Amino acid sequence: MEFVYFLGRFHVLALHLPLGILVLAVVLEVLVRFPRFRGLQPALSPTWIAGAVTAILTVILGLMHATESGFQDSDAVDAHKTAGILLALSACLIALFRTRLSPAPALKGALGAAYARVQPLWAAGGVVDRSYGRLWAVGAAVVMALMFVTGHLGGNLTHGDTYLVQYAPKPVRRLAGISAERDPRPRPKDLASADLYLDVVAPAIHQRCDGCHNDSKTSGGLSVADHAALMKGGEKGPVIVPGDPARSDLFRRITLPSSHADYMPKDGKTPLTADEVAAVGAWIRAGAPKEGAVGALKIATAAQGPIARAAGLAGDDQGGGDLGGGPALPSVPAPDQATVTAMETNGFIVRPIAPKSGLVDVDFTARRAITDEDLARLAKLKSQVRKLNLRRAQLTDAQLKTLAGFDNLAVLRLDDNPVTDAGVAALSGLKNLESLNLVGTKVTDGGVSSISALPRLQRLYVWQTGATKAGVEKLAAARPELFVDFGLTAADVPPPGPVVPALN
Ligand code: HEC
Q: Which atom of ligand 1 is found nearest the CA of 233?
């Protein structure tokens, strides 16, 4: 089957051959009516034959392509198929009518006799030639029309049905049935005035889901063409439950592990970014309104950074990398150089985050346990540290308390340290913490729930810990905009296929 898919994909390449050749055939048909171009007459038959043959090949590849999943149940595919087959048939018929047979073929026996009987009909000036001479324009018009229809229907399948006119002038877009909701919008001035659905959620969903969920290709019965279609849902009913991301099938599908069979977008298509997913979650939580500025809706603080980034309002140009969206980075005095030097000779790497900001990114890289002395130096940078990596530092709960006053800390890696819930509780005052990695620690559900109160937390990594799936699900329900990475569980991994014994 895979080989059929492989060949089938060449359909999108091969189709350009009949397209070009058939247009050329029609142009030739018109030209030969002018005395100047009469000499082109002998080219007509071979051109139509080439058009017909390549059209048949394209149809065959197209039928193979259609066996791929994601196309099967769609009416749009059937319409495209029918138009394509009709086009190939018309081209064959015209090629048949356009072919003039010469009287002296080197054929003997029964075949020769049959040829001799048919030849006068197909000869230049014969019945077929004369009839076609009168009806040629009909043939050309049918071929052109079918080519337009087939191409248009095919284009809709690959690009969504508004691809062609997406950037057309407004009246053209209205004519094409594009909802006003999808008109280009000016870039919002700031986060508070950005419209959560129109400026953030809709563009992301249109970009990533349109291909399979538009008005003509409604996979699973779902179209994301506009707010009304989105709220209507798919075959299994509504996919958005306003106010309740946890019960919204759409949100469930975009937050599954990407290996899950229900994960969207399907077939390895580019997914929404983590920020866009968080924005969708916040939008559903806010009641999935058709319009409404972020400032007017009640949006959790933690969701504002992701929404700002998804709206393109906070890039990483502040040097924050994958963090620090929303409010501008705090400005702090540069770190004390003597302390930095002492740290660097003791296994730390300290990097400035942005040219003019005093904020730093700190890594502890020594292959030994971190000492209280190390932590005392680190504490001198407590308002400067933005990112901190203490992976495998053999950090204890008591030592972890040192970090309690790190006001500007946004990203903290504590993976593979023997810390427990008691130690993690000391982090509950980190009001700017956005990402926390607790993988391979001794933390349990208790620690996870104390962490959940952190106002800006967006990402939490807790696999290989004492945390349970139930505990993580409880957290996810309480904080839908929070991305919790719990690793893959048995339920997420598709069951293995049948075991085939080796043959040798
Ligand atoms: C490559 C094609 C493809 C893309 C891209 C895609 N989907 Fe789907 N989607 C499908 C197919 C096929 C189904 C039906 C099968 C199923 O339910 O898994 C489906 C079903 C769904 C359903 C369930 C509808 C119902 O009621 O049964 C939801 C919700 C959904 N998709 C959301 C999305 C979202 C959100 C995106 C964009 C992030 C997206 N899809 C992108 C192919 C796609």
A: 26
